[in-house]
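Many introductory courses stop at the sequence. We go one step further.
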Amino acid sequence: MARIRMDDPDLPLADLMSEWPQTISVFLKHRMLCVGCLVSPIHTVTDACAAYHLDEDLFLRELMQAAGLA
């Protein structure tokens, strides 16, 4: 089985937060409603950043830092 990669553009947010629960604080810091959202099983980081007008590269870096991957 392939290892889950946070930078996978197709990774659903629900899977991201399940694999790296420490990233939840990043979503909350940005006042995003992604935690527990009904579309988190299909929304990606790209989708969320577009919806919240966030720079995707910066946001992904924050997520990776929170997960200890940076």
